[in-house]
Design goal:
Number of helices: 8
Number of strands: 6
């Protein structure tokens, strides 16, 4: 098992659960018989790159990108040298409109993860070229539990929920001590229905600052 640092204790109950053992058995079979993304050593990168004690915001995606060279364990992020998918392009357009930061050459969002943004998909793996193919293998239980643990054990987090799948997670979050920002998904199919103009980047920092927490540097060019 990968050393998850400060996540080890909060997630220990999940890793000891029979449902997680079933996920592992499923993945063992999938990785041995199919092409699966991300690489098995990158599945938990969202936790590795954003320690539990450093989480300031949670940005939820659905499942990993399913084409070659894209997924690396952070939602919406792609590996260096890979063309930016349309949803990510729209995210960076909104970032420029909101905070004035020009879109970077790379669509790698590791810097946001290092800044305290947990970039977690609700399913952590996917079979190549088959969107949502691992949606029912148990990951929903696992990631819902992560959201609940964060809600219970942390204070003053910002949960950024884009699109219907992410917005279904609202009941898992204690709204009395956290901020929830929700709108349409950045996909070209829905971005003009409320994503563009949402200003969630600046609103996240306004909330954090108001609660004595250092804001997130969203500038991917810095």
């Amino acid at each position: 098992m990968i050393d998850l640092g400060t996540w080890k204790e909060p997630l220990s109950c999940l890793f000891a659960d029979e449902r997680y053992r079933q996920i592992r058995q499923f993945l063992k079979q999938e990785y041995s018989t199919h092409t699966v993304y991300p690489d098995m050593y990158d599945i938990f990168n969202c936790f590795l790159f954003t320690p539990f004690d450093k989480v300031k915001a949670v940005l939820l995606g659905q499942d990993p990108y399913h084409n070659v060279g894209q997924a690396h364990g952070l939602c919406f992020s792609v590996q260096d040298g890979t063309p930016k998918p349309p949803s990510l392009e729209n995210m960076l357009k909104e970032l420029k409109d909101d905070l004035g930061f020009n879109p970077p050459k790379s669509g790698n969002l590791t810097k946001w993860a290092n800044e305290g943004v947990l970039l977690m998909n609700t399913a952590l793996t996917v079979r190549a070229h088959q969107a949502n193919s691992h949606a029912n293998c148990g990951w929903s239980w696992f990631t819902d539990s992560v959201i609940s643990i964060l809600s219970e054990q942390k204070n003053n987090l910002v949960f950024i929920l884009w699109g219907g799948n992410a917005r279904k997670k609202v009941p898992l979050i204690d709204q009395s001590k956290h901020c929830i920002l929700q709108c349409a998904h950045p996909s070209p199919l829905s971005a003009y229905n409320g994503f563009f103009g949402c200003r969630h980047y600046s609103k996240t920092n306004e909330y954090l600052t108001a609660h004595g927490i250092s804001p997130i540097d969203w500038n991917l060019n810095a």
